[in-house]
Amino acid sequence: MGKIVLRYISPIHQIQSLNRTLSSNNLLLFPLKLHAKEYSSSMDSAEDIFDSSLNLEETHYKEGYKEGYNHGIATGKEEARQVGLKTGFETGEELGFYKGCVDVWNSAIQIDPTRFSTRVQKGIKQMEELIQKYPVMDPENESVQEIMDALRLKFRVIRAGLRVKLEYDGYPKSRDMEF
């Protein structure tokens, strides 16, 4: 038997070729096969390291996008709640103002039915119906804006019929308030 010298050959196909040659002579080259597998797996892990380095920018972009998106959702919900609360308060305040005016006018009509013209009394009755028709518990109802516009218009008509200067100015701002 001759002496076989094994040397390390890095390309995989050369190792496979050598294994075929040796196995035809009934020699097993198990350590070399194991080494070839280890070499192959180490090459894969080296490629993984380089791939992760090359994709670093994309990875950080995706992570940043995900964090920003989640932060935006949380912040957006809080801001939406604040805006909804403010808008709901302002709408309720305006409706309350109109309801208070209607109540005062109806009280005046009960005391003296001839105090207001029939046209003004009809307008007050229509305004009261619009207030009752307003969907307070359903703010997403499509008729909300139409009813509010009709209430504002009816209020102006009644105000003109009574010849009074009465306006809804909204909630006073801190700069408008004097102590």
Q: How would you describe the overall organization of this protein?
A:
With 179 residues, the chain is mainly α. Helices cover 72% and strands 0% of the residues. The protein contains five helices and no strands. The protein is rod-shaped, with a radius of gyration of 42 Å. The C terminus is likely disordered.
State the gist of this model.
With 179 residues, this protein is mainly alpha-helical.
Descriptive key words:
mainly alpha, 179 residues, disordered C terminus
Structural class estimated from helices and strands: mainly alpha
Number of strands: 0
Can you count the helices?
Answer: 5
User: What Rg is obtained from the alpha carbons, in whole angstroms?
Assistant: 42 Å
What's the main sheet like?
Answer: none
The fraction of residues assigned to DSSP E strands is under 5%
Shape: rod-shaped
Helical content stands at: over 70%
Uncertain ranges: 7-11, 28-40, 173-179
Mean pLDDT: 76
- Secondary-structure element pattern, one letter each: HHHHH
Termini gap: 115 Å
Question: What is the fold's blueprint, element by element?
Answer:
Blueprint: H1 12-24, H2 30-54, H3 56-111, H4 118-133, H5 144-162
